[in-house]
Backbone:
C-alpha cells in the first residue's frame, strides 16, 4: 500500500513540500494516479519475481529461469516508460514534465528494484537517466543514510 500512502501524503502535504509534488491540475493529478497504478500492475510483479530469484531468496530456492522470464516480461513495460520519458523533444526530466512529482516517486520506487534484480537499463537511456535523477534527490539520499545508520 506504500504507493497509495504516497499519493495520500502528496495530496495532503505536497503543495507545502514544493509546487509540483502534488500537481495543481486535475489532469496532472490523474496522470499521477495513472503512473502509480501502472507501476503497481505493470512493473512490480515481474521486477519482484526477478529480484527474488536473483537476490532475495536463499540461493537454493532461486530459479534462474523464473528470473529470465520475468525480465522478458518487463521489456514491454520498460519500453513504455522509456517512450514516455523521451516523448518530449529532447526528452523530459520527469514523468509529467520539468518537475519531480509523486508519480516519479512512486514509479521510481518500483523501477529502482531493477538494479538489485540485475535487470539492465543500458538499452533505455532516458529511463536510466530519469532513475538516476530520482534517486540522486536529497530526500532519497537522506532515506538511504538513515537506513544505513539504523542497520
Residues:
Amino acid at each position: 500500500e506504500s504507493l497509495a500512502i504516497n499519493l495520500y501524503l502528496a495530496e495532503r502535504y505536497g503543495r507545502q513540500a514544493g509546487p509540483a509534488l502534488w500537481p495543481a491540475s486535475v489532469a496532472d493529478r490523474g496522470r499521477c494516479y495513472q503512473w502509480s497504478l501502472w507501476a503497481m500492475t505493470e512493473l512490480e510483479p515481474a521486477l519482484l519475481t526477478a529480484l527474488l530469484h536473483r537476490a532475495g531468496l536463499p540461493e537454493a530456492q532461486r530459479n534462474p529461469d523464473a528470473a529470465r522470464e520475468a525480465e522478458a516480461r518487463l521489456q514491454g513495460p520498460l519500453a513504455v516508460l522509456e517512450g514516455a520519458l523521451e516523448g518530449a523533444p529532447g526528452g523530459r526530466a520527469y514523468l509529467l514534465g520539468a518537475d519531480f512529482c509523486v508519480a516519479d516517486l512512486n514509479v521510481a520506487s518500483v523501477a529502482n528494484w531493477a538494479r538489485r534484480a540485475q535487470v539492465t537499463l543500458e538499452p533505455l537511456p532516458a529511463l536510466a537517466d530519469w532513475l538516476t535523477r530520482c534517486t540522486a534527490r536529497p530526500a532519497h539520499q537522506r532515506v538511504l543514510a538513515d537506513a544505513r545508520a539504523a542497520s
Summary: The first helix runs from residue 2 to 17. The chain has a mean pLDDT of 91. The helical segments are 2-17, 26-56, 64-85, 102-111, 113-116, 125-135, 138-150.
